[in-house]
Specification:
94 residues, mainly alpha, 4 helices, 74% helix, 0% strand
């Protein structure tokens, strides 16, 4: 069963995907980094459900903030969604 933080995180991931779809052109490197981040977040959520977290799960909030900075000038909507996502991950200790 999902807790409130997990539900909030999933909702923000959906918002981020919508924002990305609306931006049109996103360079290939950032697309790859975002896919990687998305996969890592989904993996963490699954592992949290199994209580099987390790040191490799931490730092996703920081990675999200770094991606936000890279998107900031060209894609402000995506950047804002990434910042919110990073804040959620950080508050969850991820």
């Amino acid at each position: 069963m999902l807790n409130e933080n997990d539900s909030n995180l999933k909702a923000h991931l959906k918002t981020l995907h919508r924002s990305l779809a609306e931006t049109g052109e996103v360079d290939e490197e950032l697309q790859m980094l975002l896919r990687q981040l998305d996969g890592d977040i989904k993996q963490v959520l699954e592992r949290r459900a199994d209580a099987d977290l390790d040191a490799n799960t931490y730092g996703l909030g920081s990675r999200t903030q770094e991606l936000s900075a890279r998107f900031d000038s060209r894609h402000p909507n995506v950047s804002a969604a990434l910042r919110q996502l990073g804040n959620i991950l950080s508050s969850m200790g991820i």
